[in-house]
TrEMBL record:
<keyword id="KW-0413">Isomerase</keyword>
<dbReference type="InterPro" id="IPR003331">
    <property type="entry name" value="UDP_GlcNAc_Epimerase_2_dom"/>
</dbReference>
<comment type="similarity">
    <text>Belongs to the UDP-N-acetylglucosamine 2-epimerase family.</text>
</comment>
<feature type="domain" description="UDP-N-acetylglucosamine 2-epimerase">
    <location>
        <begin position="42"/>
        <end position="304"/>
    </location>
</feature>
<dbReference type="Pfam" id="PF02350">
    <property type="entry name" value="Epimerase_2"/>
</dbReference>
<dbReference type="InterPro" id="IPR029767">
    <property type="entry name" value="WecB-like"/>
</dbReference>
<protein>
    <recommendedName>
        <fullName>UDP-N-acetylglucosamine 2-epimerase (non-hydrolyzing)</fullName>
        <ecNumber>5.1.3.14</ecNumber>
    </recommendedName>
</protein>
Amino acid sequence: MTELDQPLGSLPAQDHDHDVLLIAGSRPEVARLAPVATAFAESDRIRALTVATGPDPMAVHEAFESLGVPADVTQLLREPPGPHPAAIASLLMTRLDELLVDLDPSAVMVYGGGMTAVVAAQVAFWRQIPVVHLQAGVAGDDLLCPFPQEANRRVIGQLASLFLTTTGDAALGSPVGPNAISVGDTLAANPRPADLRFARLLRRVRSGGPQMVLVGLDRPDSLGVLASLPDLLDREPDIEIVVYGELASHGAAYPLLGHPRATVVRNLPLAELVWLIAASAVLVSDDPELVTDAPGLGTPAVLVDGPHIPEPGDSIRSILSPAVMTNVRQIIRAAPKPASPPSDGLEAARVEQAVAWMFGLCPSPVLSPTFPTSMTDPATNTEV
């Protein structure tokens, strides 16, 4: 529901002793929190409410829908926020505080270090509501890289009651409290790609095969980038390219249609797009919102002919069209992207178990060893 449709009091009647708000302000946050909502629903020990908010709450709402987890609350803003972090934070702070007063949850869960996450954590702390931090302690020791996510992550680290890490180790400079539990990356618990071409490509990439370059182009003035992709394939024999968007049906894409290392599609469902971005060595797109989301999925991005906004860490580059391929080659020739660890499919279940332990609903924060232990390739859903 949205706050304009009906009052918050129309939410389902409370039938659990504890409830947790899963607050997302971007698509990468949705990709990690949607599987957690499913795990809470399946266990049925704690009520989880998904909250779509942030600078573009409707995009977050649609992301929840596309991943099969409808947003329980979509928090529309009273006015569009400005681009500066302070403008975004000031609008979100009042809206999120109103939400916490209305719902009075037992805890809030946030992911990573986005502006929505840090504002939600601060507001919850001021209301003396416990904060659960998903993906705590995985960044580096540079306060400005990525900016401002690393600084935000450290602020959340001072306020959180439960720290759920993707690995067993905390990164230098990332404060993690005593209640730190390794759960893995819940991205792996999202629906697998239905298109076998992408499932097989992801498996090749995960097994140490080619690097993937994902190219999403919609604007006619990006045709120069599209036309340069065959040359990129010739120059870089160890890459595979996926092209999607409006220009995928343009005549300039025809040379790619029969290429053994190129896949061209008009549309990509968000559930599959999330997997492809996360596995890519670099994303090239003329969509500023998608490029902004890419670093949250661990992928550097090149924005074609976009506004140049210098950012510490250089995780997003805004490049004039003729120079795009030069930057792409620089990125893919740099240190290869680290391979994701195999998934056992229980990442979201481990999150639910840890939160249940925090509330005293179970004796251990770790899943029972009676759970399956076989490792599964998330791209193909087969044991590895």
